[in-house]
Specification:
alpha/beta, Rossmann fold, about 325 residues, TATA-Binding Protein, 14 strands
Length: about 325
């Protein structure tokens, strides 16, 4: 495979290519943006890619999440595992680490340490703010990205140089839209992921990009670039002169999250758990239906809800947007353990 990166190295230079082959990239989320970015970075020869995701593959993912197959959806494979399997087939020379966890204040710092760069591929602002705090605290560049409908935007957060997400959170032009309300199409995902990976390649090869927010609507043929240097807030609690990193306090994190694009709520337990899924299956047999278990999760039908429970005690309650109702369902299920 001596010529594997030849065309890329002609553009980046041999030293640039060597930098990529020593880099460590953390991808938060393995959905649409995350899977697209992971594939490009794997093909580019990044030494180590760490993928973190809380969810599993469903058929509704397949129109825009290119790493996954119908077999992954049928087997309800966690996205972190399905992504790792596919990426190892694409490039066996690199290291792929995967974690089936939900990012929160208690685990993010361990993941961020020693990374060269972080790619944002999450679907909610709470998680982004947690990652933003950790990235700034540990001086790791964080490349923001978001997509909804046919619109997307991205910008790079470089600690000590640019505004952070906390500085900009009230100025992002998303107008409250989510993929749950207006959907999303595949092409915008590929464009925003390409922007993010390009910024990553620049940073990893020593090219500092101009602090710019890029946005594009491919349906309306509209695009814009905004220089964001002046938006840095000296009093920002994350990157300001007296930083406190407020989102790294676990007490500030919610335990129930309505999932983007899904009629579902995720429940995260307040304490660390390690469940035996086979044991839980035995306990649930008498009052749930369609119960299945694999190495990573348990799925069943309880009343009118489909419940998916992971080893760490997290659960996704399908069939409701009501966090309170989801908590009731979760408690009814987990108390059997």
């Amino acid at each position: 495979m001596i010529n594997r990166y030849q065309k890329q190295a002609l553009f980046l230079g041999s030293d640039g290519q060597k930098q990529l082959q020593k880099a460590r990239v953390l991808i938060i989320g393995a959905g649409a943006l995350g899977s697209a970015s992971a594939e490009m970075l794997a093909r580019a020869g990044i030494d180590t890619i760490t993928i973190v995701d809380r969810d599993y593959v469903e058929y509704s993912n397949l129109h825009r999440q290119h790493l996954y197959t119908e077999a992954d959806a049928m087997n309800q494979l966690p996205k972190a595992i399905a992504a790792k399997n596919r990426l190892q087939q694409i490039n066996s020379e690199i290291t792929i680490d995967s974690h089936i966890i939900d990012i929160n204040a208690s685990n993010i710092e361990a993941l961020v340490k020693n990374q060269s760069i972080i790619i944002d591929a999450t679907d909610n602002f709470e998680t982004r703010m947690v990652v933003n705090d950790a990235a700034v605290k540990h001086n790791v560049p964080f490349i923001f990205g978001a997509c909804v409908a046919s619109y997307g935007l991205t910008f790079s957060i470089i600690p000590g140089l640019t505004p952070c997400l906390h500085c900009l959170m009230n100025r992002l032009p998303l107008d409250g839209m989510t993929c749950d309300t207006v959907g999303v199409i595949g092409p915008i995902v590929q464009i925003i992921a390409s922007f993010q990976v390009t910024q990553a390649l620049k940073l990893l090869t020593g090219h500092i990009p101009v602090p710019t927010l890029q946005s594009i609507d491919i349906w309306k043929h509209e695009k814009a670039e905004i220089t964001i240097s002046s938006m840095k807030n000296k009093q920002c609690p994350t990157c300001g002169e007296k930083a406190t990193y407020p989102y790294l306090s676990f007490e500030s994190q919610t335990k129930a999250t309505v999932l983007c694009g899904r009629d579902a709520v995720q429940i995260r337990p307040g304490i660390s758990l390690t469940l035996s899924l086979e044991h839980l299956k035995e306990k649930l047999q008498s009052f749930v239906t369609q119960i299945t278990v694999n190495a990573y999760l348990l799925s069943c039908i309880f009343e009118d809800y489909r419940v998916v429970i992971f080893k760490d005690g997290r659960a996704i309650i399908h069939g409701t947007h009501d966090s309170k109702r989801a908590r009731v369902v979760y408690n009814r299920i987990i108390k059997c353990y």
